[in-house]
Write a structure and sequence with these properties.
Layout (H helix, E strand, L loop, with lengths): L1 E3 L11 H4 L4 H14 L6 E3 L3 H14 L3 E4 L8 H10 L3 E5 L21 E4 L4 H19 L1
Parallel strand pairs: 1-2, 1-3, 3-4, 4-5
The protein binds 1,3,4-trihydroxy-5-OXO-cyclohexanecarboxylic acid (DQA).
The site of 1,3,4-trihydroxy-5-OXO-cyclohexanecarboxylic acid (DQA) has 10 residues, from loops.
């Protein structure tokens, strides 16, 4: 399951110098295509609400094998999202379009990083497809072990 946090519905128009010109629909389409090419599928969801993101993580725990999540601003504030990821225990990868370490100091802190397998950021829309490759590799490794 691919989860997009607040303001990511505005991608394409939102600060394109930082986040690029790709829309969320473009990103979701690229993920679906790449997943299909590797014999997998993705379900992509976006919300501007923290509690709804927690609910989506719980749902992922019921029916997904892994989570790709860009919690957006909640990355830097949300104990609830980190706790939800910890609770469901699925392999999760944190994604950011921008390089959060090259921006304001408050963006360097991530509550979700410690509960994720890893973080991919700074590659624009490609951060998501890189995360997908990583997640599918992890799941394949698991299957083969
Ligand atoms: C972001 C980085 C966050 O700091 C910011 O609040 C976002 C987007 C990114 O993808 O680069 O909304 O998660």
């Amino acid at each position: 399951m691919v989860l997009h946090g607040p303001n990511l519905n505005l991608l394409g128009a939102r600060e394109p110098g930082i986040y690029g010109r790709a829309t969320l629909a473009d990103i979701d389409r690229a993920l679906a295509e790449r997943a299909r090419a590797r014999g997998a599928s993705v379900e992509c969801r976006q919300t501007n609400l923290e509690g709804e993101l927690v609910g989506f993580i719980h749902e992922a725990g019921q029916r997904a094998q892994a989570i790709i999540i860009n919690p957006a601003a909640y990355t830097h504030t949300s104990v609830a999202i980190a706790d939800a990821l910890r609770a469901v225990g699925l392999p999760a990868v944190e994604v950011h379009l921008s390089n959060v370490h090259a921006r304001e100091p408050f963006r360097r802190r991530s509550f979700v990083a410690p509960v994720c397998v890893g973080t991919i950021g700074g590659f624009g829309a490609r951060s998501y497809t890189l995360a997908l490759e990583a997640v599918l590799d992890i799941l394949e490794d698991k299957q083969n072990s």
